[in-house]
């Protein structure tokens, strides 16, 4: 499943708002959308900005 950047950001924001930590967010998105969909650094950077 190919996601664009906006879709990835929305998934990360959703996970943040429901209380999922960054490490679990990486795991959950990659399990649902395919390994390598999001990287750890990207998720941690976005979580830092929220």
From TrEMBL:
<feature type="domain" description="Mos1 transposase HTH">
    <location>
        <begin position="9"/>
        <end position="45"/>
    </location>
</feature>
<dbReference type="Pfam" id="PF17906">
    <property type="entry name" value="HTH_48"/>
</dbReference>
<dbReference type="InterPro" id="IPR041426">
    <property type="entry name" value="Mos1_HTH"/>
</dbReference>
<protein>
    <recommendedName>
        <fullName>Mos1 transposase HTH domain-containing protein</fullName>
    </recommendedName>
</protein>
């Amino acid at each position: 499943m190919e996601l664009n950047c906006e879709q990835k950001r929305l998934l990360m924001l959703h996970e943040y708002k429901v209380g999922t930590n960054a490490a679990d967010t990486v795991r959950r998105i990659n399990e649902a959308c395919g390994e390598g969909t999001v990287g750890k650094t990207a998720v941690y950077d976005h979580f830092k900005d929220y």
